[in-house]
Design brief:
With 243 residues, the chain is of the alpha/beta class. It has a single domain (2-242), classed as Rossmann fold, CATH 3.40.50.880. It has 9 helices and 9 strands. It has helices spanning 16-23, 64-80, 89-97, 119-123, 184-189, 192-202, 204-208, 210-214, 218-242; strands at residues 2-7, 27-32, 47-50, 84-87, 101-117, 133-146, 151-156, 164-167, 171-174. A 9-stranded mixed sheet has the order 2-1-3-4-9-8-7-5-6, with helices on both faces. The radius of gyration is 17 Å and the shape is globular. Residues 239-243 have low confidence and may be disordered.
């Protein structure tokens, strides 16, 4: 399988998903959009994955590359009808590309947070394989406030009602991070926008201990990533075989 990855920050990469893809023999092409890398022709890829980043959708008019990315996501999902997986900003980009709207949260959600699966999530190819209540890692200050037509909410919580969506049968978005590694918290703490949201959400003292708080859960997050990745591969199998 050929996977195209849209990145918006070098340290916000597919993390543990890269290991899973490499072990399966998949070929990954990364486009660092925030650094001006061009979007390649889409037709040669099987899966599009869009990662997180510090950018906000309400600034898209000031970011030509983000406008191009939104157009590419819409073309991929609507015109080509191929599988999409968006994480954090990638989740929000999916919503806006399809006509939804993203806005700022009342307060950022950072750290270990539980999400609850919806009835639609229980029937979903990806979420149906997961527990009804799932501990996740979060780091965001924006959320989907208006769903695009045709989208279903798969999970939510009190802080953010739209923690995961599916559009059609082939496009998924996750507000939370399943891909984190042992260095994720330390890497992201170096980003000024992330450091600010971390202190705002957790306070100065708890913010300094986030990496230690997250460490005992890394194996479970890796297992969740593997489970979702396997479910996605299974969901893709019929359409992949037909092309």
């Amino acid at each position: 399988m050929k996977i195209l990855v849209f990145q918006h920050l070098a340290v916000e990469h597919p993390g543990t998903l890269r290991d899973l893809w490499a072990a399966a023999g998949h070929e990954m092409t990364t486009v660092e959009l925030d650094e001006g890398a061009p979007i390649p022709p889409l037709e040669g890829f099987d899966l599009l994955v869009a990662m997180g980043g510090p950018q906000d959708l309400w600034h898209k008019d000031d970011l030509p590359w983000m406008r191009a990315e939104l157009a590419a996501i819409r073309a991929w999902v609507v015109d080509l009808g191929r599988p999409y997986w968006g994480i954090c900003l990638g989740h929000q980009l999916l919503a806006e590309a399809l006509g939804g709207r993203v806005g700022p949260m009342a307060a950022p959600e950072v750290g270990l947070c539980e999400v609850t699966r919806t009835a639609a999530g229980a029937r979903d190819a990806l979420f149906g394989t997961l527990p009804a209540r799932l501990l996740t890692f979060q780091w965001h200050g924006a959320e989907i406030v208006t769903l695009p037509d045709g989208a279903e909410v798969l999970a939510g919580n009190a802080a953010c009602g739209v923690q995961a969506i599916r559009w059609g049968r082939h496009a998924w978005g996750l507000q939370f991070h399943v891909e984190i590694t042992e260095t994720t918290v330390a890497d992201w703490q170096q980003i000024p926008a992330y450091a600010e949201s971390l202190r705002s959400a957790l306070g100065e003292s708890r913010a300094g201990g986030l990496a230690a708080e997250v460490a005992p859960h890394l194996a479970a997050f890796r297992a969740t990533a593997a489970q979702m990745n396997a479910a996605l591969a299974a969901a893709m199998a019929p359409s992949s075989a037909s092309r």
